[in-house]
Amino acid sequence: MISKNTILISFLILSFSQIIAAQDSIQSQIQTVRRTDDTFKPGGKPIVTIFSDFSNVNYNGRSNNAFEITRAYFGYGYNFSSDFSGKVVFDVANLAVAGTTSPGVSAFTVYLKNAYAEYNHGILKADVGMIGESMFDLQESVWGKRYLYKSFQDFYSFGNTTDLGAKVKLQFIPEVALDLAVYNGEGFKKVQADSTVQLAAGLTVQPVKNLFARVYVDYLNYSKIPASSTIAAQTSFNAFVGYKSDKGSLGAEYNLQSEHANVKYHDWSGISIYGTLPIIEKLSVFARFDDLMSKKIGTATQGWNTTTDGQVYIAGVEFIPVGIQISPNIRYSDLSATGAKATTTINLNLGINF
User: Fold this and answer.
1) Do 219 and 258 have their domain in common?
2) Domain range holding 32?
3) How many structural domains compose the chain?
4) Which positions ≥6 away from 307 have C-beta within 8 Å?
């Protein structure tokens, strides 16, 4: 018969051996982390991106040709440690493309696009400073052709690409991530201290490999002194489903925004569908469809946004040798405003990264 003392001694021996094993495991993990830190060397690299194009625009029986450098980014990213990094990027924008230049004034204006510090360890990633917003970064990644056309929310000014603020991303498991952010709310071109604050939250799920689903909401307040009856808080909602792999990509998104730019009753919504199909190595075809519709106010017969309401169709071919994207493509814009004429644009776009 086994005595109680024998059982107790056996339990103590087993417990002691488990403690020793756990200590060995912890010590091994600490040594691994130390080896990682010891082998890490701080360093960085320059960031250079240039967008250029040749376009032939046909509108109302008239044709216009133009060769442009539409945008350039210059910056530097630096890794201080395995957890901490920073980035500074300047945006050189061609204002002549937007028709906002004056005679004798340079067509190019420089903005501070990014200037932030980042901490990335375990499930937590945190950015503070002039940071990239999370509203449409996943959509832009699946679209993959920023050099020839902005993503839907960026093109129609549903949100900003970067802004002054702070954000955190919690990657609970590889398939689920939550991001929370607070921004200045006015974008990198209008950084100022006022009472405007934007709060944002997004949830991204990856149910299977290469398939993504995301929902996003934000709230932008605006306080005007004296108070105005035409001012209201802006709210945004986005739902997105996308697939991206070496076999191709496909994305679909629905966007809804109320009180755009904090103007009461200025609600609008739209969809964007896009896809890319590889043909041979480094060569693919792509297509995209956008549809934007704004709210009719009072007895109006058309939406308040008479400038860009309507449909845009894009199709083209993309060739990607090392460090450059080349795309001959065609765009057809059919605006819904009364009296608006359709516009057809034939383009050759270049995106250069080095």
Assistant:
1) yes
2) 1-39
3) 2
4) 337
